[in-house]
Design goal:
about 280 residues, alpha/beta, seven-stranded mixed β-sheet, four-stranded antiparallel β-sheet, 9 helices, globular
């Protein structure tokens, strides 16, 4: 490094040391079963295995410090649903007659680990599902680490057209789409910020305009039921009240209203056979 000013030499050495430490850190994580994708659209992604409360192996996706998806890893369970709110989604799909019933089209906004789209394909044979995920790196992680690739092979989705993957902003896709869907799922909420305008009157009307007469809208609203942070829930409910004839809210943890939870918002033109305690409108 002769001829290089001393401050610059120090900076170069520091950068080399940082790079070496980073590489060593990555190797250690890989040896411990942690897959790292340093750069995605929303920050570094970590994939690692753990167990649920019953000791069943699961795999988690964490993006920039926030858990985004979870999947079973056993071959017989890899298309089943782990999260409680996804199981609520599934119950509503069944109530709407789309699980093993009438033909239809589904739109899922937000792919992540593709947990719910995998269930739709595996459990709703008469449904054609389109998933809009803004980050292609996340979709690739889902294919490689969360069995989306297995699903596409097992159900021959490219041949049958039962699963379409779109790389786009969900709100932009909805605005420019001329299709109507029997099911629209908004699973792209992150932290306390919902997907763009979908919590607004304009967003709720756009969802309604893209649903069939018997269509159902499902959204995961991450918020507490009381206290600070509830605003996003209030705004989402108010927007759906104005746009839809029927609105329901299934909270994740009604016994702990101050905790931030995955609350299931349901909206439709037709009344659904959902317990009265969950009726908002």
């Amino acid at each position: 490094m002769q001829g290089i000013p001393a401050p610059l030499r120090v900076a170069i050495i520091v950068c080399i040391v940082i790079d070496v430490v980073f590489v060593v850190f990555m190797v250690v994580l890989r040896r411990r079963g942690v897959y790292v994708k340093p750069h995605t659209m929303f920050g570094p992604a970590l994939v690692f295995d753990s167990q649920d409360d019953d000791g069943v192996p699961i795999r988690l996706l964490n993006v920039n410090g926030k858990y985004q998806s979870v999947s079973y890893v056993q071959d017989s369970l890899k298309y089943r649903l782990v999260c409680v709110y996804h199981r609520y989604f599934a119950q509503i799909v069944d109530i709407a007659g789309l699980q093993g019933g009438r033909e239809g089209r589904a739109l899922v906004i937000g792919g992540g680990g593709y947990s719910f789209p995998k269930w739709l394909v595996s459990e709703c044979p008469n449904l054609a599902t389109t998933v809009v995920e803004i980050d292609p790196k996340i979709t690739q992680i889902a294919k490689d680490r969360f069995f989306l690739g297995d699903l596409m092979r097992d159900y021959r989705t490219e041949e049958t057209g039962r699963l379409s993957l779109v790389t786009d902003d969900g709100w932009g896709y909805l605005q420019h789409s001329d299709q109507r869907f029997d099911l629209i799922v908004n699973d792209a909420f992150g932290g306390r910020k919902p997907l763009g305008p979908l919590k607004t009157d304009e967003g709720a009307r756009a969802v309604r305009d893209h649903l069939t007469e018997r269509g159902v809208y499902l959204a995961n609203v991450i918020a507490p039921l009381q206290g600070r942070g509830r605003e996003v829930l209030d705004e989402s409910l108010a927007a759906c009240r104005d746009a839809f004839e029927h609105v329901y809210l299934i909270p994740e943890a009604p016994e702990r209203p101050e905790l931030t939870g995955d609350n299931v918002l349901v909206a439709s033109r037709d009344a659904l056979k959902i317990q009265r305690q969950y009726v908002v409108k």
